[in-house]
Amino acid sequence: MKVEFYEKVFLVLTVVVLAAGLITIGASVLVAGVHVPSPAARVDPRTVAQTPPFDQPGLREIAPGKYEAVILARAWFYDPKEIRVPVGSTVTFKMTSADVVHGFELEGTTLNGMLIPGQVLTMTTTFEEPGEHLFICHEYCGVGHHTMFGRVVVE
Amino acid sequence: MTGEAISLQRTAGAEAATAYPAEQLRPIRWQLILGFVGLLIGGYLGLLQALERVGVDLYRASQIKTYYQGLTLHGVLLAFVFTFAFTNAFTQYMTMRGFGRPLASTALVQASFLTALLGVVLAGYAMLTNQASVLFTFYAPMKAHPLFYLGAVFLVISTWIVLANQLLTYRAWRREHPGERIPLPSYMGLMNYLMWTIATVGVAVEVLAFLLPWSLGWLDTTDPQLNRILFWLTGHPIVYFWLLPAYTSWYALVPAQVGGKLFSDGLTRLTFLLFLLFSIPVGVHHQFTDPGIPTAMKVIHMVLTFVVFVPSMITAFSVVAALETGGRKAGGRGLLGWIPRLPWGNPSVAAQLLAMLAFTLGGATGIINASFTMNLIVHNTAFVPGHFHLTVGTAVALSFMGIAYWFVPYLTGRQLFSRRLALVQAWCWAIGALIFARGQIGGGLESMPRRTAIGAATYALPGWDVSNWFTAVGGALMAIGGVLFFIVLFGTLFNAKRVEPAAVEPPLSEVIHGPKESWQIFDRIGLWVIVAIALTLLAYGPLLLGYLPANMTSPAIKVW
Q1: How far is A142 from chain B (nearest CA, A)?
Q2: Which residues contact B380 (CB under 8 A, 6 or more apart)?
Q3: How does DSSP classify residue A150?
Q4: Nearest to residue B410, comparing CAs of B86, B28, B72, B144?
Q5: Measuring CA to CA, which residue among B198, B187, B324 is closest to residue B247?
Q6: A interface test, pick of B324, B372, B384, B445 with most A CB neighbours within 10 Å
Q7: CA torsion B361→B363→B368→B369, rounded to 10°?
Q8: DSSP calls for B414-475
């Protein structure tokens, strides 16, 4: 099959650009340590409010400077709505939904995940600076969707 | 640049234009109009959404109860009704055009239209009565009225009927033309519908095995994570199902409309073949942030997503090169001097050129979405609608409008109502879409969530105001473009001035390196279908098997 010179050049450039993109993404995971959510556990949304750890939502210290934040999402609020952590702490968020699909986007960080009933979502980040970060439900969850948010206060 | 110029048509010049039976063209025309009714209502609701974020509430005046009822109608009418109906109509026509014969079955042409109409009526009833405000993704366990799911099923069946007719027509043509290459216009449509039909297996299983029985109360619970995996098995390939009719026009008609020639039959076939193979095994890139999918699966789907970028890059080259041959023939000189020499005064061409321009930005933002870790910054933010209003909202929608500027006169025998209004329309839409996308993309980068009534939100971040105004102004400009389009459309449908259909039908592109130079294996349709199914099984088999048993724990919930 006849492929003209410029066509060949363009195809090679395409492959080079795409390969460079893939290598960069690989580096963001392997070198920079950015991670996407992966399977943690399953849970029954009908009984989640009685199932540890979601029977006691909130923040607990699991080691010096290390915290676990358990958040249960419902239409249309997060329980708890606010989390306060000291500067420099590493927080692992453990979350799920008790009803429909919700979202969790922690503004100013790379934490971004879906709260799907039946699935536990875990994500970890370290808060280096004092300040406030909103977390926003970014998946449509009903007529009150635009009122569903919370905040992490780093102090 | 030398070589024999060969028309895409088997017998160049001897094409008996418009000699297609009226009883087939009539249901095609009705299906096209059904699609534009979807665009009219769906587009109107888009305007309401854009204005909502700067404090203008037109919902009460529209009998629409909530932002989300409107958003559901917007998504379903534009992403399913407008696109499916237009594509069914255009593909049936291009199939006839390529094979140079009527479709094998008139009954199937009628059935496709009636099935689509039934789907619109059923789903439309559920949505208009606010019994299905679940958005076009209908994520479980939000439960819609059963007629909503049933309507979606009928809309999909209307596309399967078109494929059946394409295959029957192909078989009849093949009997009379053994050993010949499948004409390109027919080849493109076949590849698109084969890809799409394989892809619909995901949503078919989701709706028929889970959501429909569950919404009827025959099943107590469903598995939202599994349902999402099945949805996106269909939900990503659907974007190529929207896009490939526009590509078909860009390859098969636009080069001739600008007086240029397509470079390569082989690369064109390769492009559509790659879409058949790689459109489907990529759906998980919509689910990088889903907790229930292993990271390895996400990586595999990301890499395959990068592969499916290749045919779009080939298209960028081939179509622009074809445009350049046209612009240079018209006297364009220098590196870019050929661009102003293109027939910008032809609204059909202008609309599609602007659509291509928007698509370069749409493609670039798409690669960002698909990039695994970078996706964390933009996932489910307003960035995503910013992206897809450049792709489906402009590259596809504006191309469809550009096609309509000759297709409607062709189907009705009535002259285009106003060339000038049509031109203003195209520019309005394109500029509006760019401003709109600037608003949504900027907002998204500042963490603004998508599919949210931002005007009523109880939270806000600094910087969102500016984005909202871009979105509103851009959306309003698109709406003006929309109004102009419907003035031209209705003006044409009721125009007293008649045209000879043959006079408005664009000729098919000539190809510099014709089918004789391209590999025969591209035409082995059966083989490629098997490979496409195998790739789908490889990408989804381990994922689904590893996921099982299903986590059937979610009862149905109504949250609106």
Answers
A1: 5
A2: A103, A105, A112, A114, A138, A139, B289, B449, B450, B451
A3: E
A4: B28
A5: B187
A6: B372
A7: 120
A8: B--S-HHHHHHHHHHHHHHHHHHHHHHHHHHHTT-BSSS-GGG-S---TTHHHHHHHHHHHH
Whether A18 sits inside 8 A of B551 (CB atoms) is: no
Specify the pTM.
Answer: 0.95
The SS3 of residue B109 is helix
The label of the residue with tokens 């612009």 reads: B327
CB–CB of B401/B423 below 8 Å?
no
d(CA A69, CA B224): 24
Q: Which homologous superfamily is A41-154 in?
A: Cupredoxins -  blue copper proteins (2.60.40.420)
CB A148 within 8 A of CB A141: yes
> Residue A123 corresponds to which tokens in the numbers above?
């994500």
The answer to whether the beta carbons of residues B122 and B146 sit under 8 Å apart is: no
- B438, two tokens: 């600037």
Nearest to B34 by CA among B153, B123, B121, B147: B121
3-state helix, strand, coil in chain A (%, to 5): 20, 40, 40
Task: Measure CB to CB from residue A100 to each of B309, B513, B559 and give the nearest one.
Answer: B559
d(CA B333, CA A12): 27
Name the B residues in 353-382 with CB < 8 Å from any A CB. Answer: 367, 371-377, 379-381
B395 residue type, one letter: A
Give the helix/strand (H/E) hosting B22: helix B22-52
Closest by alpha carbon to B214, among B143, B152, B154, B148? B143
- Asked if B249 contacts B295 with a C-beta cutoff of 8 angstroms, the reply is no
- Out of A4, A45, A121, closest to residue B291 by CB: A121
Distance separating alpha carbons of residues B12 and B198, to the nearest angstrom:
34
Per-residue pLDDT of chain B (560 residues; tens, 9 = 90+): 333 444 444 443 444 444 799 999 999 999 999 999 999 999 999 999 999 999 999 998 889 999 999 999 999 999 999 999 999 999 999 999 999 999 999 999 999 999 999 999 999 999 999 999 999 999 999 999 999 999 999 999 999 999 999 999 999 999 999 999 999 999 999 999 999 999 999 999 999 999 999 999 999 999 999 999 999 999 999 999 999 999 999 999 999 999 999 999 999 999 999 999 999 999 999 999 999 999 999 999 999 999 999 999 999 999 999 999 999 999 999 999 999 999 999 999 999 999 999 999 999 999 999 998 999 999 999 999 999 999 999 999 999 999 999 999 999 999 999 999 999 999 999 999 999 999 999 999 999 999 999 999 999 999 999 999 999 999 999 999 999 999 999 999 999 999 999 999 999 999 999 998 899 999 999 999 999 999 999 999 999 999 999 999 999 999 99
Structural tokens at position B320: 């622009």
Residue entry with tokens 């808060």: A127
- For β-strands A41-42 and A90-97, DSSP reports them as unpaired
Tell me the domain boundaries of chain A.
1-34, 41-154
Are B74 and B42 spatial neighbours (Cβ–Cβ below 8 Å)?
Answer: yes
DSSP A65: T
CB within 8 Å: A138 and B317: no
Task: Tell me the ipTM for this assembly.
Answer: 0.96
Query: Residue A4 burial by CB count (10 A; 0-12/13-18/19+): exposed, middle or buried?
Result: middle
Strand partners, A112: A105
Q: For chain A, say whether B130 makes contact (Cβ under 8 Å).
A: no
> Which residues from B are below 8 Å from A118, CB to CB?
223-225, 292, 551, 553-554
A contacts of B468 (beta carbons < 8 Å): none
Short-list B161, B155, B318, CA closest to B247:
B318
